[in-house]
Amino acid sequence: MRRKTKIKSALLLFPGFVALPASLLAAETATTLSDVVVSDESEDGRPETPSKTDFATPKTKVTKAAIEKTNAVTTVDAVKFESGVFARQRYIGDQNAPIGMRGSNPYQGGRVMVFMDGMPIWNPLQISFNGSPRWGLIGPGEVKSIDVLSGPFSAEYSGNAMGGVLNYTTLMPQKREIYTEATYFVQPYEFEGTKTNLQGFKTFASYGDKFGDFSTYFSYNHIENEGQPMTPQVSGDKGFNRNTALAGLPNGAFLEKNPRTGQYRYNYGDDGIQHSVDDLYKWKGSYAINPELETNFVIAFQNFERTNTGQSFIERANGTTVWPGSTVANSGSLWPASLGASPTTLGTSTQTRQTLTLGWGLKGRIAGDWYTNTNISFFDILKDQTISSNYNPQDPNRVMTGRDSSFDDSGWFNISTKFNNEQFLGRKDLSFATGYEFQHSRILLTQSNLTNYENNTQATNWLNSKSGGTTDVHALFGQLSWRFMPDWDATVGTRLERWNSYDGINLSSTQQTGRLNPADRQVSRWSPKFSLGYEPGRWKFRYSVGKAYKFPLPEELYGNSSGVSGNVSLADATLKPEDGTHHNLLAEYAFNNGYVRLNLFHENVRNAIYNQSIYLPGSAVLSTLVSSVGEVETDGLDFTINHDRVFGSDFDVKLNTTILNAEIIANERNPAYVGKQFPLMPNYRANLLTTYHYGTDWDFSVGTRYSGRQFSQLDNSDQQLPYYSAFTESVYVDLKATYRFNKAGHVSAGIDNINDYQAFYNHPLPQRTFFAQVGYKF
């Protein structure tokens, strides 16, 4: 049973502080805030205490018990019912699962910061679908809690918190524990030319123990899954009406409309089933230097493999598959001229990624009233190689050419040291936090032409492109809180950042004798913050405002590349930092076992970086272009009700809605965009999760997730059509039932998207998916 003690927030403790002097508990001062709750015991037996460095930011804690109410197979699943949060996970185990919060969409790289026990796992290198946090570094079975912070209102975080922050805290056992868990899932998938059962499973095992002051924890997480085809292969737009199109429909092709233009097109194949295998090997250790100070270590190795092979839907009358570019001489049937496809669109692709993560931390009291939270981490991409073929292996006219896309000398290094004092200058009404952070990020992508993709043989003129570069960010911050009247407080903070970009390279096959080296750059910015709070009794009111500068990431500056199907990605080494001014007005009322909260927020961001999809002149293949939008203004309303055991019943309810209006208000490069909605920002999102507790052993949950329509184009010309390259609304209804036995085991079953809604986020999203799980702690 968890025992809770209420204390005044003026006496808040930092991690590692075990006991309160009786004199402080008895003190009645005029400089107090509303009561907060400190748990003497948490999931792993270690005390949890609130932080004073982020209270100016709207914050929600997601507990392990809350995560267990949903079908959370992966780490990113744990936040799918949180207000204003959206992660585009195309299938279970998807490594490209970028996340967005509030006024930042998932394709805006580096706008949401994700931490694992204080160590950054958000992606400071890449953007768009590649810019996913390294979710796989956290095994779902080891998550203890998640703090969800909305917006950049604390000087502790950089402008990369424009959307928000996710702080994952993981378990560290205080006694010998062995835990095993197995999950099976299946998605009966059917869309156009694909109809099959896509299956997968996850296994998780951990061993933890404590020897005196030293705790150790080993874990292994394995996810193996089949994902639906991600990229249908489509013809260029055709200038015909529906009746004409049906009369000349090729055998096996599917007639559909281009969501961006509304014109008819044919879907003649896709990139095939996505087979993925993800293995995480992890060790954590902690040592208590004294009762109030501990040091932590982590080593994690992740190995990920994904393969997919394209498929053609075009068939002869006898069922023989016809491949793009085929002629009577080599396949007995002409490829329909109306499709106009290249043979390079239906090849095979294999990706292998291996990463190593090292981390060290120091947390607790260091001297007097000073506490520290220091972390040093290193993330190295040991190997990230994708081998793609120009032709399908079953194509009788194939040749063995292909492309090798490899990341070399890529990764990041982070140092963050923070110091807090809750009785600054000996005054109980003052709190102070300060610190220094250094972020080093390096990316280098080399693309090689292959004469034989099976044995990775390079062509004589092997270089297709080489691009990459480095960014460094140095930061100092300070933040002072003053509780100047009963129930009132004010916080003033600032952050000074110096950003450098250097070692840029952009070398293509036509530039082998002369490189195009972008100029080195240096930019410095101040980011002031202010917050005013009033907390009488159960009420809480707070106004927060802050400047935030999000500096361009290496891929935004240097990420030039091309695909075998002719698509290209174009970066811009001259991008300016995103310049944001963010406001938030919070009103909250707390009641037993819950709260009701309203946030009104306003964001103004100049030089907003957006990686837009475009058709290059003369091409029917989607490419991407990084560019800046002059000025974007976002107004939002965020309403949340979170109540466990409603009115003393056996029901828990979580309801949240986010209403947004994100409008482009200035754009010198193309004034026609002014007045348009900023892409990938739905006007309305809502989540409802209800859980019924039957006795002490059974839980039954029903959840609904809704996301409204949105545009992907800056001119808002795209349409809500349920086909590839669309960004549609979505309505998902989820079910889960859990039975616990022997106080150490559980069995659960669930269904996500039971209504089988087919939504698209550029790629098709999952259809109805079934889950079954069993776990036991020894």
UniProtKB/TrEMBL annotation:
Q: Which GO terms describe its molecular function?
A: siderophore uptake transmembrane transporter activity
Q: Which GO terms describe its biological process?
A: siderophore transmembrane transport
**Known Gene3D superfamilies for this protein?**
TonB-dependent receptor, beta-barrel domain, TonB-dependent receptor, plug domain
Annotated compartments: Cell outer membrane
Bilayer disposition of the protein: Multi-pass membrane protein
Annotated coiled-coil positions are: none
Keyword annotations from UniProtKB, A to Z: Cell outer membrane, Ion transport, Membrane, Signal, TonB box, Transmembrane, Transmembrane beta strand, Transport
Identify the GO cellular component terms for this protein: cell outer membrane
Q: Does the keyword Transport apply?
A: yes
Look up keyword Transport and say if it applies: yes
What Pfam family is a match for this entry? Plug
Question: What's this protein's family per the entry?
Answer: Belongs to the TonB-dependent receptor family.
**Under what name is this protein listed?**
Uncharacterized protein
